[in-house]
Amino acid sequence: MAAVTLLEARGLTRHFGGLKAVDGVDLDLARGEIHALIGPNGAGKTTFVSLLSGRTPAQSGTVRFEGRDITRLPAHARVRQGIAYTFQITQVFANLTTFDNVALAVQGRGVSKRLVRETSAALERVGLADCADEVAGTLSYGHQRLLEIAMGLALNPRLLILDEPTQGLAIGEIENFKRLIEGLVPERTVLLIEHNMDVVMDLAHRITVLNFGQVLSTGTPEEIRANAAVQAAYLGGQA
Amino acid sequence: MRDRALLSHLGLVAVLMAAHWMLPAYHHDAVAKVLVLSVYAMGYNIAFGYTGMLSLGHALFFAAGLYGAAMPLTLWGWTGGPALAAGLVAATVLAAAVGLLALRTRGVSFMIVTLMFAQAGYLTILYLGRWTRGDEGIVIAQPLRRIMGLDLSDGATRYLAALLLFVLGLLACLHLVRSPFGRVMVAMRENEERARMLGYNPFTVKLAALTLSGLYSGAAGAAYALMFGYAGASLAGVQYSILPMLWVLLGGAGTVAGPFLGCLLMFYLIDYASVITSATLLVVGVALVALVLFAPKGALGALRDRLGKEGRAWLP
Amino acid sequence: MGFGPLLLLAILEGAVTAAVLALTAVGLSLTFGIMRVVNVAHGEFFMLGAVLAWFVSQWFPDAPLLAFLLAMVVCPLVVAGVAVLADVLILKRLHYEPEATIVATIGLLYIFQQAALSFFGPNARPVAPPFNFRVQLPWFGYSGYKLFVILAAGVLLLLVWLLITRTKIGLVMRATQIDRTTAKAFGINVDRVYAMTFGIGAGLAAIAAVLVVPIQQAHYLMGGDPLLLSFIVVILGGLGSLRGTLIAALLIGLLDGLLSTAFFFPPTFAKIVATLLVALVLVFRPEGLFGRRTA
């Protein structure tokens, strides 16, 4: 890989009691790539990205971001460093307006004079400008997913972690989503947990497969498709 | 003027100003007391209504303002202005200190920890009875209750001073909750984990809100001492932690004018009920149960919901 | 009195406190553990038990033993009935949402206090102990009734333990505690389990009060201390853990006996220190002194 590494995880480990949810995982994210994380249910994908975003502390291993060791940094500080995380189960502020939801992300970057303009622009980008004054909890599910992504983008992150972003979206909405994500690189880097294989194969530059908390394989979509071990553990299991 | 929220709250201020000339003496004094206690309730609302911290220990901050002003006045011969400032500082510092410890917990534990700190404060007031005069309380003589040449024991002066304090508190609160920081406070109430993943440190945000809440409570306590000339342990007891919660719930948690409305309604509810029955505890108890069962959003909260977008514009 | 006998006296006094406290706190622990309800009115159930015991004692002024035995049955049942009503009429309708139930039980606290104030009056009233004999030890005489309280509380706690661990009702309660939804799926009537748990919890507080009222007079504001102490015990023991609650009650009771009897600690100062200490334990060890899992 010619590109510079943005994030580097080494030997990340998190056990819950006897369950080895994440067990010594290494991962490199290249600047400007779309990297997909796949694996069967319970493979440790969500736990792993929780370790990257700092929502769960790692028991051992290190995370370096932009060359700095952020292993001990709490989650909110990692967000400020440029790691944004969007939730698997939509967690917008249901009682606040759509505008306020996104404004919370924008103002956190220290924007104050141009707050209204930047917030409106962020809503525009995902096509929610018309809903700015609606209470977020009353939006349709698809719109709430878009709002979640708008909040992630409004943080202006260098790394955007998306946890199953297309879950529950209609087919037309998935196409729009793919275009949105493709437009983010190479300025930003995207780490994507995704179950929809079409989305993964279309979007991802590289794919990492997790199984039983360990890395089974990493490679381009073609390499992953051809990998026998992956097929046995995952793709084969679905067929 | 397009700022509808400012308009509605200035309207309230105008009504209260007009009331100064129109109310008969009994109600004039009553409303003055309600205005001061509303500032306490506004402080509670900042912590509970906007930031979602269910505290049962705010009497500690109110009492810190109360005794912080009363003791320098009576024991050390301070004048009104510095005594008022001492009450403010005492309450604010105490709120920050309690926050530093209690905010390591959340939910039920936070409620119990704040309750215990306040209980320890209450017992300390009793234990230091030599200076605080315990249950009997400190009565502040009329000549001491002056600030910048104004005699706060005089009914008319007291009403205007109470109104001034109230207006300052009200407008500051209105500004706060519509500021970016106010938005972050609400985010903590709604979903702390989500707010954290937008880069906000829940601990610092809540600590700032609780400290500010303590400042309001202390201002009310210190003003109470100066205006009504009394500081007693009963004002530091657990009931005085529960009352602001009741006022806030009645008027509408998370509304700027709700604490005042709730305090006013509750005062007159107990006042009128006392004509028929002496069972004031029953009135408080039934009001609390009825509120959570039938009107969990309180008067202004329900009104705001009913009015939709307009409601949010008029009643932040 | 020499230090040895004084220590024995302190331990006996502490054991009485611990026994009553354990009963009250186990009631609070049950409602918290199984229903996740923070019952701020728990101390008032204790108070109601004591006040009712006084009323029962007035029916039989000449037969304190009969009155006591009757009170041991009637008071917990009546208080449990009140609690079941409160659960069905109020808590259930709030869907046991934590903040709403806290506010509602604060409201109940005031309602019960007012009821006691109106019907019982503002004065503290004594209840005659069911029997008066002193156990003569070599160094001092000790109230036989206090020894009986320790014994009775021990037996009652054993019964609760058996109920929870050995009976079908206990099994159903534990299943509901672990997973409400699954319990429902297995055909358990969760509403009934909750009402029963709330009733049993309140009944335990009431029975503790019946035991204590011949030692300590009945008063409409007597619920504050048991509430705070029970909270302390339940938290120190690890929220929802019965075993932890028992150990913590013993610890707090004995400490109380030692401090107030053997070392003549000024009670207010001791209370301040104890309150602050427990608050700090909660802050720095939120899982309690004995709990391992976070509740």
Low-confidence residue ranges of chain C: none
Given the structure, what is the number of helices of chain C? 11
Placed side by side, the strands forming the largest sheet of chain C appear as 1-2
Total number of beta strands of chain C: 2
Quaternary state of the chains: heterotrimer
Shape of chain B: globular
What is the percentage of strand-forming residues of chain C? under 5%
The domain count of chain C comes to 1
**Could you tell me the number of beta strands of chain B?**
4
Distance between the termini of chain C: 46 Å
Major sheet attributes of chain C: 2 strands, antiparallel
Q: What is the strand arrangement across the widest sheet of chain B?
A: 1-4
* Helix fraction of chain C by DSSP (H/I, runs of at least 4): over 70%
For the largest interface in this structure, which chains are involved and how many residues does each contribute? B-C, 39 and 40 residues
Topology:
The complex is a heterotrimer of chains A (239), B (316) and C (295).
Chain A: E1 5-16, E2 19-30, E3 34-38, H1 45-53, E4 60-65, E5 68-69, H2 75-81, E6 83-86, H3 98-107, H4 115-126, H5 141-154, E7 159-163, H6 171-182, E8 189-193, H7 197-203, E9 206-211, E10 214-219, H8 221-226, H9 228-238
Parallel strand pairs in A: 3-8, 3-9, 6-7, 7-8
Antiparallel strand pairs in A: 1-2, 1-4, 4-5, 9-10
Helix pairs in contact in A: 3-4, 3-5, 4-5
Chain B: H1 4-22, H2 25-50, H3 59-75, H4 80-102, H5 107-127, H6 129-132, E1 138-139, E2 146-147, E3 150-151, H7 155-177, H8 180-190, H9 192-196, H10 202-228, E4 230-231, H11 239-251, H12 258-276, H13 280-294, H14 298-314
Antiparallel strand pairs in B: 1-4, 2-3
Helix pairs in contact in B: 1-7, 2-7, 2-10, 2-11, 2-12, 3-4, 3-10, 4-10, 7-10, 8-10, 11-12, 11-14
Chain C: H1 3-35, H2 42-59, H3 64-91, H4 98-120, E1 134-136, E2 141-143, H5 144-166, H6 168-178, H7 180-185, H8 190-212, H9 224-236, H10 242-262, H11 267-284
Antiparallel strand pairs in C: 1-2
Helix pairs in contact in C: 1-5, 1-8, 1-9, 1-10, 2-3, 2-4, 2-8, 2-9, 3-8, 5-6, 6-8, 9-10
